[in-house]
# Entry
Amino acid sequence: MDERYELTISASTVANLISVSVWGIFRGLETFSHLTYRDNSNNIFINVSHIVDYPRFQHRGVLLDTSRHYVPKAVILQNLDAMTYNKYNVFHWHIVDDQSFPYQSTNFPSISDKGAYIPSTHIYTINEVVEIIDYARQRGIRVIAEFDTPGHSLSWGPGISGLLTQCYANHSGTIEPDGYGPINPILNSTYEFLQQLYAEITKLFPDEYIHVGGDEVSFNCWQSNPDINQFMKTMGFGTDYAKLESYYMAKLLKTVSQLEKTSIVWQEVFDNEVQLNQDTIVHVWKADPMSEMKNVTSSGYRALLSTCWYLNDFQMANDWIQFYPCEPLDFNGTAKENDLVLGGETCMWAEYVDSTNLISRLWPRALAPAERLWSNMTVNDHVLALPRFEEHRCRMVERGINAEPVNGPSWCPSDYLV
# Structure
C-alpha cells in the first residue's frame, strides 16, 4: 500500500494532487480537508501550499474487540470512517474471545449458535463481514482478523464437542471433572477442526495476514488433565507446559502457512521459542516493550508495538498526553532492526466498552498514536500537538463522529449544530 502523495495548491486557486496509488489519493484528500478554514462569515479558505507526504510506518492499526461486548455493524462502520479521517490503514478485528463467538461460521454454525450472546442478533453474518471488509477497502483500510487460540477460546467449546481441555480438581480426595480450559492440543481432531475453520477464514478475509493470537494461556487446566500429562511424558516435555503450547502453535502456524497466509502472533509465542517462519510478525503488548522489540528484531522478525497504546485503560480524557511520546524505535536498534518495525496498533479492548461509548472513548485519543505512526520521528511534542488535536477533534465532530473533549474547556464552531 503506497500512500505517498504530493499536494500543490497554487495562488490561482488550482489544486493538484498526485500519487501512484488510490491510497495516496485518499491520504492527500484528507490532508486537503485539514488545510481549509472558515472566517466568521463561514467563508471557506485555503492557503497556498506544497506538500510531499508519506507515512513513517506502513502498519498503523486499530484493534477492536467485539467479543467482550458485541459491537453492532453500524458502529464498526462509523469507526472505520473515523480511522480514515486519522490515516489509519489497518483494522485488526479481534472478533471472538472467551466471552462470546459472534462470527457466524459457514462450516461450523454451531459455534455462534451456542457461543454468541444472542445467536439471532449478536452475530456477524458472512454477508456483514464482507460488507465491513469492502467498506474498509474503499477507505484505504485493510482488515486483519484475529481468532485467538489456544487460550481465549471458551466460547468455542459449547459448539464443538471435545475441542476444549477437560479440567480436573481434587474434591475431598477424589479427582473429578471441573470445568474446561484452553483448546486441547493433544487430539488429532483439534487440528482437523482448525484446518477447516482457518480454510474458511482465510478465504473470507482477503488480507495476506491473519492474527492467530497465542497469548495468556493458563497452564493450570492442562496440568490437571491426566491424558495431557501422559502426552507430556510421551513427548519428553517433562513438566514444561510452554513446550506443549509451542507444540500446538507450531502445528497451527503450519496450517496457516499451508493456506498461503502469513501469521501475526502475540509476543508470548516468540518468548516461548516456538519455531516461527521468518516472515512471522510478532505483536508486542506486554511490559518492557523496548527490550522485547530489540529481542524480536535482532532475531530477524518483524514487529508491531501496542504496549503503550491500550486506550481502553482510561484515566481521564487528556491521558493522550501520557501515551503520545511512545516511540516504536526507542530501543537502540540497528538500521536493519529498525526496518523490521512495521508500526503499531491502538488497542480498544471491550471489557468496559460497547456501542454506547466506543467512539467517544477511542476518539480523539487515538489521534495520538495515529500521528506518531504517520509523522516524522521529530514530531513528538504534545504541547505543539494540542492545538492540532483540538482543531481535528472539532473537524471529526462536524463529520458526525462523537469525539469527546480531551483538553479541558473549549468550543467548536459547530457546537450549536450538534
